[in-house]
Amino acid sequence: MSVNRRKIAAKVQYALWVVFFAQIVVERFVELPYTYWWSWLPALGAMGIGLMAARSARHRIGTPAAVAVAPPVTGRWSAVNSPADKVPSHGTHSLAQTYAIDIVAEPAEGPARPAPVWFWPVAQRNRDYPAFGAPLHAVAPATVVHAEDGQRDHLSRSSLAGVLYFWLVEGVGRTIGGSRRIVGNHIVLDLGDGTHAVYAHVQRGSLHVRPGDEVGPGDLLGRCGNSGNSTQPHVHFQLMDGPDLETANGIPFTWHGVGVPASGETFTVDADATARARPQDV
After folding, report:
1. Which whole-number Å values give the CA distances from 19 to 15, 22, 36, 86, in the listed order?
2. Which helix (H) or strand (E) holds 196?
3. CA gap 132, 181 in Å, rounded
4. Which residues pair with 149 in a beta bridge?
5. Confidence at residue 280, expressed as pLDDT on a 0 to 100 scale
6. How far apart are CA 199 and CA 136, in angstroms?
7. Which of 70, 105, 106 is nearest to 273 (CA)?
8. Exposed, middle or buried: residue 57 (CB in 10 Å: 0-12, 13-18, 19+)?
9. Residue-by-residue pLDDT tens, the chain, 282 positions
10. Which residues contact 117 (CB under 8 A, 6 or more apart)?
11. From CA 84, how far away is CA 99, in angstroms rounded?
């Protein structure tokens, strides 16, 4: 499937979801002139397009060589949803997430992140998580292609009720809203040689860069947040072969001095692990 066809398919898929959920709302007030069975056709069409797009992505993806870059953070972290355990790491090739990784802060000292609970509290404050506000650094010399931080940082979804709300309400709404609502505030860097780095779920109002800026390894880009499809403050990082999340393919990465940590594996990145000083980290 060509790039243009993939973009058109994505827009049609979003439009079908909008039609489907609009019908649900309208049917509460007006009796539509067709049967209930027919009202499911937009949803079935959207799911069919999604399945075809996923199959096309699997055919496009070979076994590209891993690109070595610096870690995007410093301090003590642990990995979640790592490509060291499975590919695609997030269960999908969409949005170039084939080799994406999520990491959460695990400070040796200070308060740990709240543990998941069944019922109460339904949600937690973002500042209760040590990853929230953590600096995000450039992983290589690069040009900023995209940077946005206007979306809100919602509360955590650390309980069973919170997770159900996240998947059944927020998740559906963000799917309709398109890729930027899924990844939330995000930064895209052009590393050269057809490689782009993505930082998702960035904290609202935390950007230190804008499109067109040139950055070096270790430069401060923004801070970790909890925007978009995120159950708790964490860093989502991935490499891809183009600047557009909806048409690019994922590329494997390896971090200097760390490699690719497996899910549950804790790793530490020293403050001097990158090539340049970071005077703005304070």
Report:
1. 6, 5, 14, 35
2. strand 195-200
3. 19
4. none
5. 40
6. 8
7. 70
8. buried
9. 445 565 566 566 556 556 665 666 666 666 665 556 566 666 666 556 556 655 555 554 556 889 999 999 999 999 999 999 999 999 889 899 999 999 999 987 766 788 777 788 877 899 999 999 999 999 999 999 999 999 999 888 777 777 676 666 676 666 666 788 899 999 999 999 999 999 999 999 999 999 999 999 999 999 999 999 888 999 999 999 999 998 999 999 999 999 999 999 999 998 776 554 343 443
10. 158, 159, 160
11. 9
Q: Is 215 helix (H, G, I), strand (E, B) or coil?
A: strand
CA 60 to chain centre: 21
d(CA 272, CA 266): 19
Superfamily for domain range 67-269: Glucose Permease (Domain IIA) (2.70.70.10)
The SS3 assignment for 21 reads helix
- Candidates 239, 234, 222, 271; CA nearest to 140 is 239
Residue 74 tokens, joined: 């410093």
Q: Tokens at residue 68, please?
A: 């070595």
Length of the chain: 282
User: In the structure encoding, which two tokens stand for residue 84, read together?
Assistant: 């060291």
